[in-house]
Structure formats: C-alpha cells, structure tokens
Write a structure and sequence with these properties.
Length: 365
C-alpha cells in the first residue's frame, strides 16, 4: 500500500510541474507533429484523448496509463495520407515482463516530401527533404482494480534541409476505471519537455504542451459508448476577435468591428475545449465511430457556406487478434485525410491457428 501511495504522489507531482511550467498562451511551439492523431480510432473520435479500458493497442501512445498485460505481444501499424503530399506513420509494439511490468515502444515518422532549394538570388541549389521522427518508450501499471498510471518518454528529431533539432518530451497519465460498469476517466499531461539542440543556437522554443481529461461510458442496455474529451485545460481563451478575423462583422456607419456578446464568446470558448464522440458496437467484431471537434470546426470553417469541418467518422473490424481500422476527419471541403491502421495480437492469432487445426493438436497431445 505504501508503494502505491508513492506512485500516486509522484504522478500528481509530475502533473503539477507540467501544468505550472507550460500554462501560458500565445507564442510558437516546435515538434507539433507530436500532437498529430496517428491511430484511426483516435482520429474517428475527434483526435483527442481517449479513455477506454480494452485490449486495443492503437490507443496506448495516446493514453499510457492503460499499457497493460492485455496488450502483451501486440503490434500496431498506422498510416495517414495527410495534406499536400505529406504522409505520416507509426509502428508500436507492446510487451509485458513478469517483474518489470508492461511496456510499449513506438516509432513515428512524418515525411513532408521533396522541396527545391534556392539561394537569395533565386538560383536553384538542389532538392532537400523535410522529416520529423520520434521514438517513444511507454510504461503502464495498474495500482488497484480501479486505478492505473503510465508515462511516455519521447526522443525527438527534426531535420529541415540543413537545420536540425533534438528534444526530449514526456507524457504522464492516470486513469480510473470500473470494468463492470464500463466507465473510464483519464487525466493526461502531454508533451512536457524541452529542446536539447534547437534549430538556432540559443533559441529554445516551447513544446506543444497540453493538459487533457477524457471520460467514456458504455451504456448498459444499448451497444453504444459515448466519449467526452477535454483539451487545452491549462488556458481558457482559444478564440480570437479582431481585424484579422474574417468572420467579424463591421458597423456600416462607423466602420468599427462588432464584437460578439459576452455570452456568445463564453460558450464559443467553452465548447472549443470539448470533443464529443460516439462508438456504436453492434457486435464484438465491428464498431463505428463518430465525433465532433468544435475547435477544429471554428478554425477551419469557410465564409458564406456550411462546413462539415470538425466532424469525423470511422470503423473498426476486430476478428480474433486482428484489428483493422479506417477513419476520416473533415478539415475543409475536399480536405479530409484518410487514416488506416492494422493491429495484431500474436498470442490470440496463435490460439486461433491452433484451434483451426484440431488434428495437429490431437497429435501433439
């Protein structure tokens, strides 16, 4: 019991350090690819934090507190066809050691394509590539039947032509769950860290820190699980009202900006922090995901027409140790990246292979 208390105290200390160190608005950040949604299930549910206690390994890097023995010997591969020739992918493997605990290792890679370089006179200097890479080591532990903690350590590298940067980042998470009622709650401090070698000497930039909270529950008599994910909890203002906002109205007589009411500004800010998602699970082999991200909708909507920006959807097949998922998240008309993933549970696949060959099993016995 004393050891569990030490784990809990350490976890909340890390959360407070991260929140206090990064609770600021404005400014720029590096390594924004760390915030991309790599798993199709996460993308389909709005690209936020997902809190679900199940055996899906594609969620582990989003929520390290659920890295556990049920993910032992699993592999997850994810690929997203992003914008303007940009593609990104990840590969994750999870393994549980009897004494050391449950771990997951993941590699992320973003390829922005080839570019043509020129000097100040416009003379071509050759082609160059732009890439982001992150190697993540995750650890998770269940402290009781209802409480678990976990953390990720990320080694980051970015190469942009002749400019390079190295950095370190960490996630810490804690979850409460009830297996009988299918309720799950997670608190996550994401991307706590710093550049070790910046792009420009002496110019250390902040990382895309975030403080997130997620809740999910599977309804008792209906095959539906609902998700509520909160993000950017370390700051309140997420909108902008000013001359550069194309949605601002102007008074025809005075030519001055007409600002929305305080109530409208409050509710816009409030819902920008929330992602609503649904999973429809008609069977244990198939599920459909739907979500709405209000912040993406407000940032990507266009003038003079209705927009589906911020809406996402996807599906997942889960058949005896093999998972296949597909999803899309709408950013703008004609701009909805496709995300696919394949996950394999080698232990389950081995059992399936043996059960399909009873004659072989009889000989072995």
């Amino acid at each position: 019991m004393k050891g569990k208390r030490i784990h809990i105290i350490l976890f909340f200390s890390l959360l407070l350090i991260g929140a206090n160190g990064y609770a600021q608005t404005g400014g720029r950040s590096v390594y924004n690819f760390l915030s991309y949604s790599y798993a199709s299930r996460v993308t389909a549910l709005g690209s936020g934090l997902i809190s679900v206690y199940d055996d899906d390994p594609t969620l582990l890097m989003v929520n390290p507190s659920y890295i556990g023995a049920r993910h032992h010997n699993t592999l997850a591969l994810d690929f997203t066809n992003y914008f303007a020739g940009t593609n990104y992918a990840s590969a994750l493997y999870s393994y549980t050691f009897p004494k050391a605990g449950s771990f997951a290792i993941e590699a992320r890679y973003v390829n922005y394509g080839k570019f043509t370089g020129t000097d100040e006179s416009g003379v071509t200097t050759g082609n160059f590539s732009v890439n982001d890479v992150a190697l993540t080591l995750g650890w998770g532990r269940e402290l009781s039947q209802h409480f678990s903690i976990g953390a990720n350590l990320k080694f980051v590298y970015c190469g942009y032509e002749s400019y390079h940067s190295f950095g370190l980042a960490a996630d810490v998470a804690s979850s409460f769950f009830t297996k009988d009622k299918n309720i799950s709650l997670t608190l996550l401090a994401k991307n706590i860290g710093t550049e070790v070698k910046p792009f420009y000497a002496g110019n250390l930039e902040r990382l895309p820190f975030d403080l997130q909270l997620a809740f999910s529950q599977r309804l008792a008599h209906v095959p539906i699980r609902y998700h509520i994910s909160l993000h950017s909890l370390y700051r309140w203002n997420m909108n902008y009202y000013g001359a550069d906002n194309p949605f601002m109205e102007t008074d025809a007589l005075t030519n001055t900006l007409i600002y929305p009411s305080k109530a409208k500004q409050f509710f816009d800010n409030f819902f920008r922090h929330i992602i609503f998602g649904l999973e429809i699970e008609p069977s244990k082999y198939f599920s459909i995901q739907l979500a709405y991200n209000h912040n993406i909708h407000q940032e990507m909507k266009v003038l003079a027409r209705h927009s589906m920006a911020g809406f996402s959807y996807g599906f997942m097949l889960n058949i005896k140790g093999l998972r296949f998922g597909f999803s899309r998240l709408q950013y703008a008309p004609g701009a909805a990246p496709n995300c696919v993933n394949l996950a394999l549970n080698f232990g389950e696949l081995a059992k399936w292979k043996k059960s399909d060959n009873p004659k072989k099993l009889k000989k072995m016995n």
